[in-house]
Amino acid sequence: MINGKSWKYGDNVNTDEIIPARYLNTTNEKELAAHCMEDIDPEFVNKAVEGDIIVAGDNFGCGSSREHAPISIKALGISCVIAKSFARIFFRNAINIGLPIFESEKAGIEISDGDNVKVDINSNIITNLTTNKEYSFTPFADEMKDIIKAGGLMEYIKVNYCSS
Amino acid sequence: MGMTITEKIIAAHSGHQEISAGQFVYADVDICLGNDITAPIAIEQFETLGVENVFNPDSIVLVPDHFTPNKDIKSAQNSKLLREFALKHQIKNYFEVGRVGIEHVLLPEQGIVVPGDLVIGADSHTCTYGAMGIFSTGVGSTDLAACYATGKVWLKVPETIKFIFNGKLNEWVSGKDLILHVIGNIGVDGARYKAMEFSGSVITDLSMDDRLAMCNMAIEAGAKNGIIEPDDCTENYVNGRAQREYKFYSSDADCEYHEIHEYDVSTLSPQVAIPNLPENVRPVEELSDIAIDQVVIGSCTNGRISDLRIAAQILKDKKIHPSIRLIVIPGTQAVYLEALKEGLIEVFIKAEGVVSTPTCGPCLGGHMGILAEGERALSTTNRNFAGRMGHPKSEVYLSNPAVAAASAITGKITHPEKIN
């Protein structure tokens, strides 16, 4: 069960804004987390607390393939990202590293900044506890569920390819 | 039901006779690419697997092109990680400074990627190689690590949108203008998760450099890949440089397209994308009062020899505007050397531009031309997100190399026809 406060952003949040290129000379998760969302919301790392949720519009994570973007979000302790839609490389990177993401057109529109939001992964339901509204999210393909269940692509590979 | 070229290549790499959009496959990868930003994470992830050897060292390509020659100590450490990994696993396609070029200019030029391949790269502009009839797509570092271990990638077969270009291109209008026009038309998520297949008489007449520039920016419409059916132009380009056997695929007449867009581009002007999204596209004529501080000619989009030729044609015997900084970046050492032989480098230096060693550098705000607060660049690169090239309050406009060269002379965004 995921439960946290919402931080709301618009359409086309790109990976340059999530983690600017000036910080791509490191792979250290803590360093990346310290600059999460810096070029769209410089105060984000100071105001967000562990368990909080990012909610956004269309095409979240567009642009560069940099995995540093979902890594910085996950390492900051953000519990999940809910968006109307995700850019495809960000989508697969999030699945691969085990950052929970949920695609929901209505939730992306209707959830406001500061709302208290709960996600029940087993029943596919997002609940806005502030407004008492419920939303469904696009279910994952079975093959993606296998990767998610394993905890990410590396864990999945370990079990399915590297165990011999 | 027939298959698209994209479906055929994925089918051939996943043991299927037939395949259709939406299907989930683990596909065999011919070439997997990483750079000095993305490969360090892939290498660290690979080393958590406890696997002794990579699946196939000959399929791995490592191109330290973003922050090289190393801009700082951390970047140097990352490059060192690539160098040592290449040595340990006998990866022959590691490109040291002096041989390195911008990855998506380098791999086609060297014949490392060939028609019919399935290519993944931990760089979003990996979609460039579709110009050669390749299925190639950008992925993340963890995908790359998995591919190092297994030789495979997970893929959902994309639906295809077909774009047909009819008519005849005006002077100064290039592949870059065609793709900017399309992105302006369908938006930055207009082809999200889809394949973009480019065709029509205009594409048939387009050079490989221009085709590469077009497919390069498919990601800017959110696409999984851009692709062009191989033809005589492809054969002429790959013949003599392909390092492996290649195969031409084409779409069946009865294949299914998600959408078909048809354009008559006979009246199309050079296109410019204004801040802060590549979809904010205007004809160059509408922007003639926009003053700029810096012009960049280069990148994986427009750093090829024909790009430098057209820029030099405009800049020959001219000086750039005193308020402009012009940075020219040949895409590879071979492009640099050719430009030197043809006298293009002399043109740029006499015009008072600077010429840099091949690097992605300023395109992503890495190094070699970062913008200060409030500054504005006109660039032949591919993204104009807020702060992409430096300070969060700096601006980037995108254009073809001819517009960039003309604008460097006047200090304002300028149609090349205005320069005599």
Overview of the molecule:
Chain A is of the alpha/beta class and 164 residues long. Chain A has one domain: Aconitase, domain 4 (Alpha-Beta Barrel), CATH 3.20.19. Chain A has helices spanning 15-18, 29-33, 44-47, 68-75, 88-97, 105-110, 142-150, 153-160; strands spanning 2-8, 53-56, 80-83, 101-103, 116-120, 125-128, 133-136. In chain A, strands 4-3-2-1-5-6-7 form a seven-stranded mixed beta sheet. In chain A, strand 5 and strand 6 form a beta hairpin. The mean pLDDT of chain A is 96. Chain B has two domains: 5-262, 2-Layer Sandwich (Aconitase, domain 3), CATH 3.30.499.10; 272-418, Aconitase, domain 3. Chain B is 29% helix and 18% strand. Chain B is built from 14 helices and 18 strands. In chain B, strand 8 (160-166), helix 6 and strand 9 (195-199) form a beta-alpha-beta unit. In chain B, helix 6 (175-186) runs parallel beside helix 8 (208-216) and helix 11 crosses helix 13. The longest helix of chain B has 16 residues, at 73-88. Chain B is globular and about 60 Å long. Chain B starts with a helix and ends in a 10-residue tail after the last helix. At the A-B interface, helix 5, helix 7 and helix 8 of A face helix 2, helix 3 and helix 5 of B.
